[in-house]
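Dear all,

This email documents one entry for the complex benchmark we are building for the journal club exercise. For each entry we list the sequence lines for every component of the assembly. Then comes the predicted three-dimensional structure of the complex as a token string, followed by one or two observations. Please use this as the template for your own entries, and keep the labels exactly as they appear.
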Amino acid sequence: MKTRNDCREWRELLGAHALGHLEGDEKAGLEAHLDGCARCRDELASLRPVALMLPHADPARFGPAPRPPAELGQRIAATIAGEEQRAQKRRRRRLFGGFALGGATAAAVATVLLLFVFGGGEQSPRQEVEFADLPAGITIDAALEPHSYGTEIHMYVHGVPSGTLCRVWLRGPNGASYPAGTFRYRWGDDSDAVLSSALDLSRTRAVVVDTGKRTFVAPVDQPVAALHNANEEEPT
Amino acid sequence: MPGRMIQLGNSTRGALSRERDVREAYSAHSGELYGFAVRSLGDAGLAEEAVQETFVRAWRAGDRFDPKIGSLRTWLFAILRNVVIDLGRARAVRPGVAEGGIEPSVEPLDEALTAWQVEEAMRRIGDEHRRVLVETYYRGRPYAEVAEELGVPEGTVKSRVYYGLRALRVVLEEMGYED
């Protein structure tokens, strides 16, 4: 049997032993040494879990790790900044809504503001709608703009599974639905989907989004209707 | 499954509720998250999507992160794990999305995470140590043959296997492994 005077020499066989690669005299000699060396037993015990993990790995994947593209961090920062802006906007909207409901004076202020916003000033007559009671983690924002051809819909969705096909309709005063188109939600795309419907904004009573599993409805406020011709024929 | 493997990371950062915190977390962990996402999804584009969604979800839930319960790294990997599952489901109904020549992982996600950690640890140890482990363990070649090829004594190959396993253990501990 091979003799080894130095504990270090035996210890350097522990790796091969942990992998089950030693045999014969060398294995017997090491096992005899282990019987009398607590330090080497402890060392072997610390190597065994690592040896047991090796079968999980694929040696074909030991090459250089893929690195994320440089712009990914910027995209994430932009997405988060966009979400933060939307959240602030929603908070402002809720604050204003609560204020307007607070009394007649506030309502009058709200009316004046609505007339300013929708009454032909320099600002766009864009109308935002709110999807209430959304499940946790899901965000849907929509803004409507009147046009001579009908209504333009800017829609932002976040929190549904990536790849979800979203179908959008406008609902008219008679309850009928008017298609506004479809878009596919992708994680990482923070842009608004821009859709359109032939239904005039003045006749629009709700925005409906169907994500396949769920349908979400946001009512459209009425004040804007008075600023448009209510006698036009509805699209078919 | 050896030991209690899936205990990742040991950093103790604060919540991710500020954009600056997200930037710091991204700088520290995006490489590993992306590497695991590529391995699991087999598609670089989907992996980017997964990492982005992971940080956005982490930011949204930043107030709920508690460093006393686990490290930020562990938390991010837990989020990524869920994102990868969601993406896998989405891909199942959209066949043909994965492209680019990288084979997606087919093992269960927890095993994929173990595998990825070993592979990452293998990348971090020295070339000589990795080489002997690949030749003797993964390729099953005799030590004498490997020694001859490398031009070193057989005992040197054995000692390199030992020091290679030790190096792997150290790296895995740095990555958060506890046995």
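Observations: The two ends of chain A are 97 Å apart (CA to CA). The beta strands of chain A are 127-130, 139-147, 150-158, 165-171, 177-184, 193-197, 206-210, 215-219.
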